[in-house]
Amino acid sequence: MRAAERLPIDFSSNKAYCYYRQNKLQEALDLLRGQEETAPVLQLESQILYRLGRMNDCMNSYEKLQKFKIDSMDLKINIIAALVAAGRASEVQTAMKAQKVDLTTRALRDTRSFELAYNSACSLIEDKKYSEAKEQLDLAKRIGKEELMVEDYGEDDIEYELAPVSAQLAYVQQLQGQSQDAMQTYVNMINKKAADLSPVADPSSLAVATTNLISLKGTKDAADSLKKLDRLFEKSTAPNHLQLVDLKLSQRQKEALYSARVLLLLHTNKTDQAHELVSGLLGMFRDSVFPVLLQAAVHVKEKKVQKAEEVLSQYAEKHPENSKGALLSLAQIAANANHFQLAADSLSKILDIQHMPATVATLVALKERLGDSNAAASVLDSAIQWWKNSMTEDNKLDLFMRVAAEFKLSHGRDEEACLLYEELVKSHGSIEALAGLVVTSARTNVEKAEQYEKKLKPLPGLKGVNVESLEKTSGARHVEGPQDMKVDVPEEVKKQKAKKRKRKPRYPKGFDPANPGPPPDPERWLPRRERSSYRPKRKDKRAQVRGAQGAVTRETAAASVSSKGSQNTSSSKTPAANTDQPKASNKSRKKKSRS
């Protein structure tokens, strides 16, 4: 009887899961290629892509999973995390409604899911709803603590497990301006780890706390911050590479850590190390904008502004879909270097912010610096047209029309300014717009100005003022001071002012005014050389001996040589004995001559 053939069993998916658990993400993804897209394979693939930071591919895998109609809370939690990491937090509510999940705080209390509340809070942080996010983080912490206490976790273990929630709560406090509370939380998490106590946070949460603490401290204690951050890195075998310690961090979190280290190196004037690290990052993150921004920052630190502008311009041309950050940085660097045309061109390429007030104001200022008021007016006209077509709640049309009218009025475009003010009066009817319309129309059409002037409400207290007679007067006379004003002063007041109070003179201690003694020298305040009684000292015309004791001057030696004829033969043969003797006084010379 023929034996039945056994089909080969494919363990590729199991092997890929083992690689995933060992953090060998690329090897795991390679094993899944070509596999049948079953629900387990797609779930594992989405998790690997999430860890690799490829959020768009991750979301594609989750969208493929929808056809399997899997009702899993873990799957819903992972979808929220992927949307937040992909920068699509605004889609979380819609995606969860499709999954029949209510993310309100009251509903989350009923689900009793710690991870769901935590991920929902993260989406609210991205949407800048900080108060709601704080409520849900507090809820997540309370639910997580109750669940872990049921499972007999100790206090230290509970604190360790809930460290991500604590770090996120501190981050919300930091965003809300409660810097001291946030800093205290970060410091507690870091110091317990540094003191080799039982760790209160997992390594990933510790890395987040360290980075956020550095951002809070800024340039203060940059060397100490650099030491704290270096604990999270280890040297790689590749040159100019630093690898993070095995941490489960998203791509954005890794970029934040590397960016913090480069900036700290620049603040501590370690430019060479920053250069080396940036060179390694350019190889590690080839298509990302953040190493290019760091490279430009290093060039600016080295005062190579033109090199920084070239680097950013090349990246923007090569990656137009991801060029917003590079173009903004290029505009800032160029504006600081007085390269106004390059700054204006860079801002003009970012189409999605052309209508924003800050962008419009910056572009108008740059065009004015270039002396091109027509281009500045065109920027304002384009912004007005965009807001006219916009259906947003926070419409800025009236703001831009008022600013544009003022700008055109100051640049001699009276008719255009008049049209803008007239449109503002018809649409909003504000008093400021009506007053501006009257002033502007007075330059172009006096009849129209008088017509709109009648709509202005009369000011209280001006009914009794005759404007025509006021215009005929020469105006108020300027008074230089109180001495120019003629005021009638009564005689009694003049006498009182004339009576001045006489104060007793104050004498030095021990001075008797009855016996003052000799008067003081009137020249006592002058220097001694300038006084009339000064007599300079007489100079000693006698020759002075300088040098060691026993030395004689050249004149004395010459005189002794010339007088050797008057001396006996024995004394002329021994001249050295005379040079060793001290110079004789006049009296001694007279005695010798007498003898």
Automatic annotation (TrEMBL):
UniProt KW Cytoplasm keyword: yes
The annotated region (Disordered) lies at 471-595
| Signal peptide per UniProt | none
Oxidoreductase recorded as keyword: no
- Compositionally biased spans, kind Low complexity: 560-572
Q: List the biased-composition ranges (Polar residues).
A: 573-584
Here the segments flagged for biased composition (Basic and acidic residues) are 477-495, 521-533
Q: Which GO terms describe its cellular component?
A: endoplasmic reticulum; signal recognition particle, endoplasmic reticulum targeting
Family named by the database record: Belongs to the SRP72 family.
Function recorded in the entry: Component of the signal recognition particle (SRP) complex, a ribonucleoprotein complex that mediates the cotranslational targeting of secretory and membrane proteins to the endoplasmic reticulum (ER).
Q: What is this protein called?
A: Signal recognition particle subunit SRP72
